[in-house]
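Possible race condition, two jobs.
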Amino acid sequence: MPVSNIIEKLGRAIFEAPFGTQKIAQDAPELAEIRIAVLDAVKAKSHRASGRNVFPYNLVRINLLGVPDEQASVFHGEFLSKYLAEELRAGLSRSNYRFPDDLFVEITTTPKLPEPNQEWLTVDTLITEKVATPSVTAIHPPARLTVEAGTAIPAELQIQGPRINIGRTVEVYREGSGLARRNDVAFGEQEEISRSVSREHAHILFSQETGECRLVNDRIYRGEANCGTYIIRNGFAMAVHRNARGTLLMSGDQIQLGQALLRFQVD
């Protein structure tokens, strides 16, 4: 496929995906190609230490060739770089790699077409100090959750503590061990949307030290396609897979749990 067609299809996949879609990664093979190429390049630049694979670089720079100047803004926005950074972290975590907490992605483009036998995508890795910008700085309370689809108690919750549990029913019991946890936002059993939420579906962690709120998937599932937990940002759904670190929340994000929706908002 000519590189111009790849770029055009990728840009269209990013900006024409319907609000709340969960299929953009599957429906955009060009995006999947970038994700695979980046992950392979990162793993190739890792090393072994104490029995673990280690990726020591905190900056992954993706260089795309053949991007017309009029289409460059599609790739320079923070949305795509943040999405690829989250996918990279998830891929490294699944492969049991160690990597820096401040791992981030930059994307550069050039209208120059690849030479014969030259790849249209290259990856550089660096160790650098990330410069914070207003658009990517950590969020700070007061923040709140508002239920937008489904029925939960309470319908709105101010985030004040270090951990907010979200699930179905207020108290969750496990056979043989008694009370397992209490949900701060508890969906009911009366309607289909609310019943789609797992009893121990997710929790939000607030770090007093960094000011970040992160969404953590608590569901036990088989296979990535059934993770059941998504962050919807700018009309794009990002899967939140199980890992201890979770995924950074930003003001205005929707949180999709099964069929239920919540809104995360910084006041």
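Job #2 (started ~2 s after job #1):
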Amino acid sequence: MTVRFHSEANKNDTSSFATPIKLAYAQREAFINRVPEFSERNIKAIFPWKTRDGTWGCAFKLNESGRIRLETISSDNRGAAIVAFIGTKNGMHQVIDMVIDRPISDGIVAIPRGITDVEMLVLRKQFKVLGEEPEAKDKKKEDKPQDPVDWRMDRSRDSRSSEPPMRAPKLPPLPEEAPRKKSGRVAPEPDLPRIAD
């Protein structure tokens, strides 16, 4: 599905740059630029809502290039119209025309009404919906096998390194301790066997 926003053009522009149109809400004849100011390629996410007339309204959050273009158009063309079109393979139709009344710097443009149920269904599948978590990510988390032992919680390992601890070499058993004298002095330690180099 395509989502295109065309700004109002000068009627003196040639037919290669501008095309005539009837503005439904402003109730007047006008010209719009043939090339859209921003389109579905600039949309990062959407926020839809149901309107009183039974159609859908939708706010479109634009990427950085779309945000800059929207800020430029809304600053330079105050009082002019911007016209939104939605299209499929079968054709494109004019959804709404709006008057640019102020500069928009946050990169969010909204169609207040006029989107059909079918169009909204496709838009929800095509773009990320603000406030909704994608199901695919949750499914991946559930399907991922969990490691039964987390090495960070394993007290037998050194907490400063992920490597397993080194084991001390096995030494020969020590001879039995000599009995202590009654005087409280300790008998000299017996000679221990030396480890060969």
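Residues 2-131 form a domain with the Gyrase A; domain 2 fold (CATH 3.30.1360.200).
Logs attached separately.
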